[in-house]
């Protein structure tokens, strides 16, 4: 059995693939501890996984604002001390970082203490943590077609984002019924994400009645702190009752994506991987303030692969027309779903698991089930 420390906190886009990797490692006989942040989004999501071991670590994100920069430096120093203690106590065979502010201290600690380090970048524009720390890693996982200057080709592997095992396409009617929606009516899902949900929330609240008039149910995940949960009933042009639901957080995204005919979403890499796995067409609205504008690059690739279309935030005035054009075009939706199924052929999780086992073995870790040597 090998032991791994996985740094994956700070956002759902980092935590979700970390959970997927930990579950995959456990299924193959390995042990994993997930290092997460103190943020509310981490606490909310990890409640669903009592079978996994989590450790909440210090640390805050990088900022150039003088006061916040000082806070970041102090908190990252505390995080480094925490990670050194974790590595010495656990003596892992490998460390995996999914980017963000939780990755830096564990990567540096692992490097100093001689533990193999792997980094995973899910976005098509690599973030600051991966660009800065990649040279310290024995393995850097990048999206297909992406290269990073300064990273040795021998250290680079091209894989997508690991997706949690609960993400499988479910029968749409059953998924809708489980969410309290009418199985026979169209469903539009809106995902704002942990950042940048305001513009999408405002858009859907302004158009929910007119969408319901067309017979479209709306299910909007507004984001934590963006309003209270609540449902409303509207009447369509044909006189049918049409439901709209607003929830701050959902831990049933697999069912939600399966229930949807169409999703309007930001373009974080985690969301796109889940859309692909559930074969759900999408209209992507890249978050303009995303670091290094990475969401625009993610969305453009998704559109080129045929999973949906891109609408810029400056074009939200035309979003309703795009939704109606796609929602009632069954031929187009089938084409998108077929493209999404093709996009999901590579099993990113299995590729990573196999490679991490090789990395640990090269460092001297025993294989699962191996017997200790006798003399």
Keywords:
single chain; 375 residues; alpha/beta; Rossmann fold; seven-stranded parallel beta sheet; 13 helices; 14 strands; 41% helix; disordered C terminus
- CATH homologous superfamily annotation of the largest domain: Glycogen Phosphorylase B
Output the CATH class name of the largest domain.
Alpha Beta
What's the β-strand tally?
14
- The arrangement of helices and strands along the chain is EHEHEHEHEHEEHEHEEEHEHEHEHHH
The CATH architecture term of the largest domain is: 3-Layer(aba) Sandwich
Strand order of the largest sheet: 3-2-1-4-5-6-7
Fraction of helical residues: 40-55%
Compute the separation of the termini in Å. Answer: 21 Å
């Amino acid at each position: 059995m090998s032991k791994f420390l996985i740094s994956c906190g700070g956002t759902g886009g980092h935590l979700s693939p970390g959970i997927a990797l930990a579950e995959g490692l456990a299924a193959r006989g390995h042990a994993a501890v997930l290092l997460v942040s103190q943020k509310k989004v981490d606490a909310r999501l990890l409640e669903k996984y009592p079978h996994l071991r989590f450790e909440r670590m210090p640390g805050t994100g990088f900022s150039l604002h003088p006061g916040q920069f000082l806070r970041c430096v102090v908190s990252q120093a505390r995080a480094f001390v925490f990670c050194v203690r974790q590595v010495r106590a656990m003596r892992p065979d490998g460390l995996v970082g999914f980017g963000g502010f939780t990755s830096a201290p564990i990567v540096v600690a692992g490097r100093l203490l001689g533990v193999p380090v792997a980094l995973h970048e899910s976005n098509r524009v690599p973030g600051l943590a991966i660009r800065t720390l990649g040279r310290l890693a024995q393995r850097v996982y990048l999206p297909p077609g992406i290269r990073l200057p300064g990273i040795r080709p021998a250290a680079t592997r091209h894989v997508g984002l690991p997706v949690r095992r609960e993400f499988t396409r479910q029968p749409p009617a059953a998924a809708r019924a489980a969410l309290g929606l009418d199985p026979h009516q169209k469903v539009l899902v809106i995902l704002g994400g942990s950042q940048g949900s305001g513009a999408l929330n405002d858009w859907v609240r302004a158009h929910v009645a007119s969408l319901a008039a067309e017979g479209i149910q709306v299910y909007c995940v507004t984001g934590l702190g963006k309003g209270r949960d609540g449902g409303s009933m509207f009447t369509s042009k044909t006189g049918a009752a049409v439901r709209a639901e607003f929830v701050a957080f959902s831990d049933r995204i697999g069912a939600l994506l399966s229930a949807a005919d169409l999703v309007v979403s930001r373009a974080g890499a985690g969301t796109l991987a889940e859309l692909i796995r559930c074969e759900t067409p999408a209209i992507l609205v890249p978050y303009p303030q995303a670091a290094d504008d990475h969401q625009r690059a993610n969305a453009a690739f998704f559109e080129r692969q045929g999973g949906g279309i891109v609408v810029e935030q400056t074009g939200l005035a035309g979003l309703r027309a795009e939704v109606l054009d796609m929602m009632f075009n069954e031929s187009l939706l089938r084409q998108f779903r077929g493209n999404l199924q093709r996009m999901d052929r590579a099993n990113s999780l299995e590729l990573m698991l196999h490679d991490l086992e090789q990395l640990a073995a090269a460092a001297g870790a025993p294989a699962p089930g191996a017997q200790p040597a006798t003399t």
